[in-house]
Amino acid sequence: xxxxxxxxxxxxxxxxxxxxxxxxxxxxxxxxxxxxxxxxxxxxxxxxxxxxxxxxxxxxxxxxxxxxxxxxxxxxxxxxxxxxxxxxxxxxxxxxxxxxxxxxxxxxxxxxxxxxxxxxxxxxxxxxxxxxxxxxxxxxxxxxxxxxxxxxxxxxxxxxxxxxxxxxxxxxxxxxxxxxxxxxxxxxxxxxxxxxxxxxxxxxxxxxxxxxxxxxxxxxxxxxxxxxxxxxxxxxxxxxxxxxxxxxxxxxxxxxxxxxxxxxxxxxxxxxxxxxxxxxxxxxxxxxxxxxxxxxxxxxxxxxxxxxxxxxxxxxxxxxxxxxxxxxxxxxxxxxxxxxxxxxxxxxxxxxxxxxxxxxxxxxxxxxxxxxxxxxxxxxxxxxxxxxxxxxxxxxxxxxxx
Length: 402
Hints:
Layout: H1 3-39, H2 41-77, E1 83-87, H3 103-108, E2 113-127, E3 133-141, E4 153-156, E5 166-170, H4 174-177, E6 185-188, E7 191-199, E8 210-214, H5 215-221, E9 231-236, H6 242-252, E10 256-260, H7 261-275, H8 278-307, H9 309-317, H10 322-354, H11 366-392
Parallel strand pairs: 3-8, 5-7
Antiparallel strand pairs: 1-9, 1-10, 2-3, 2-6, 2-9, 4-7, 6-7
Helix pairs in contact: 1-10, 2-7, 2-8, 2-10, 2-11, 8-11, 10-11
């Protein structure tokens, strides 16, 4: 064997020994962290309760935020439009008023416009079959061309809305509207209607039930003229420049706003989630949950570290580095994070499942689950800092003065 081969062999042996030593060190650190964590079951229980409380609170608050966002933007996800013609000053889709009329004809005369779909949207009074009335938001569109017809239909069909007095409602609003099944009758603004289709999952952020029907029936029910609409959805021809078409529409149409799909969507989100303060309250609740979790976990980790100061001082006296002790505390925090996260997620998923058919659903997505895991780990690592600072001040000689 030549010198080069001998050197390479020695290097490989050294690397193998280093890897084995590193593996043994990690196992030792993990074993010590595990024993420290489970030695005091009461302290562990308090730590886990704090983490679980934080995970569930943040999951519920952010889940409600995602659910609210989904409800507010649902109409934009199911409409086909490049540009929206809306009354000037419209804050959101759920803030309707009527345009002057003839916007569709004016828009179709613009070069680059492929099609225009009109929507008649307005507030109405729903008279329950058993007596009493409640407010609803009626949405009328062309069922044939599908400007914004109901989706997620579980009973009946969209085509059935073209029949006499046909409307579609969501089954989650049966109790609010005083109905129980397909085919029942009611009155909207003193006009008889028949439930011809039932949807599942079309909920309103304002909890006001949506009632879908044809464009002509909505106009008649809402006392609008045959030419009036609340919104006009413009489709631009392939290859046409949306900005140019938008500018041409703005020149032709006065006292209206021409918004892109994204602009109207963001305006609706901004109004309901931030101008009304609803979104800020949900985010504040999530931040509160994180703060509470950090405080509880930090206190218990600090107390646990304080209880084991003599053991840590002994390790230092035997030659253990400060880094070694820090790793023990961090792994202890990570084990707490994983256990607390798993238990918290079980509860959070249960809450999300139970809220599926409520008016305000807690939405749980893979992205939110990943965010919660990162927040939990970060929270526990941050909490471990106070314990690490305490250990850093340990005098190894203190073990000999006991």
